[in-house]
Amino acid sequence: MEGILPLWKEKGMTSHDCVFKLRKILGMKRIGHTGTLDPSVEGVLPICLGQATKVAEYVTDAGKEYIATVSIGASTETEDADGAVVESDETFKRVTREELLTVLQRLTGEITQIPPMYSAVKVNGKRLYEYARKGIEVERPSRKVHIYEIELLDDADFFEGEELQFSIRIACGKGTYIRTLSVQIGEQLGYPAHMKNLVRTASGNFVQQDCMTLAEVVERKENGQLNNFIRPLEDALIDFTFVPLEEDLYDKIMNGQVLPQHKLLLQNDVIVFTHKDKAVAIYRNHPTKEGLMKPEKMFPVNR
Q1: What is the active site of this protein (predicted)?
Q2: DSSP 204-219
């Protein structure tokens, strides 16, 4: 079985749990996920099968879309609803729609984030959550992330009370922490805040409507229909330029040779060579030899 299985990860499971269960369901070992989702988060988790594990990094690096519920009035140690409250403000609050939209606009584009202590980012060889569990605070490197769009999903003219809640849809680039974005929204409004709930509705080219739960995977496998729902690995590469393989280059590309730079690599970081509409190799500019290109990924099964 080759390709990408668009899985809907349910709450209470880790991404590794999903891979472990699918290995048993499908009876195969070569399976990989495309970026972790916290156990409390549900949503789109493309699973790569067989040769498609080679393209997992491209799905991981692609844009994502989320729907989050933001809570204004308390911050937590994990920046989401799972952590202990570290600061609260129980005063009566009133925020107009215009004020909130202004804040969301201010946080759209390239912004700076500091990863939460309870995250998998590595500092000095250890993941931040390892320090956090021991009560050790370490300096965290800031990072630039890109927020393409934030849409306010609630239509109220104002939000008021001791705790304010509203839902937003976020389209963002890789490395964005929606928990941290929720805290940043609160900071802009002048209050502690955290992310109360999160659903990932898209990962790269894979959307919620494409996905199956683990139970549906089992059902479709038993009915012999599962292959109809497996997406080709080429779907993970749609952001790249596809180049039909010319006959004079066929053997050289198939053997993964270093070759003179293809003209399309003057405008692209990578190109995908195809044969009969199937990806057979990904090439990029050679990092040390000007004017040459080298293979990054090969897909011999697609010959």
Answers
A1: 38
A2: TTEEGGG-B-HHHHHH
Strands annotated E in the chain: 3-9, 31-33, 42-49, 64-72, 74-76, 85-88, 93-96, 109-113, 122-123, 126-127, 143-152, 158-161, 164-172, 193-203, 206-207, 241-244, 259-260, 270-275, 278-285, 292-298
- Looking at the predicted structure, is the pLDDT value of residue 135 above 80? no
Is 131 within 8 Å of 117 (Cβ atoms)? yes
**Cα separation values, 131 from 14, 84, 140, Å:** 20, 16, 11
CATH class of the domain whose range is 240-302: mainly beta
Please state whether 276 falls in left (phi above 0), alpha (psi between -120 and 50) or beta: left
pTM metric for this prediction: 0.89
Backbone angles phi, psi at 215, to 5 degrees: -65, -40
The CATH number of the structural domain formed by 3-62+204-235 is: 3.30.2350.10
The total number of residues written for the chain in this structure = 303
Domain made up of 64-202: CATH architecture: 2-Layer Sandwich (3.30)
Q: What's the pLDDT tens digit per position in 37-61?
A: 889 999 999 999 999 999 999 999 9
> Helix, strand or coil for residue 16?
helix
Catalytic residues, which ones?
38
Q: Given this chain, do its domains 3-62+204-235 and 64-202 carry the same CATH topology?
A: yes
Strands 164-172 and 143-152: antiparallel
